[in-house]
Amino acid sequence: MDKKFTKDEEEIEELRVNNTTADERRNAIENIEENEKKNIKPDGKTANWNK
Question: Region Disordered: start and end of each range (predicted)?
Fold first, then answer.
């Protein structure tokens, strides 16, 4: 971020960036756990591609 923020703008931007809801965090965690069960890597490929 090359733009110079005022202190207030900086705080607002930080709040905006960090403003994920509990539901969004829960969904992300559930997706990760679900993918681990299915053995899917983050790139969408299965870890057992050579079996």
Answer: 1-51
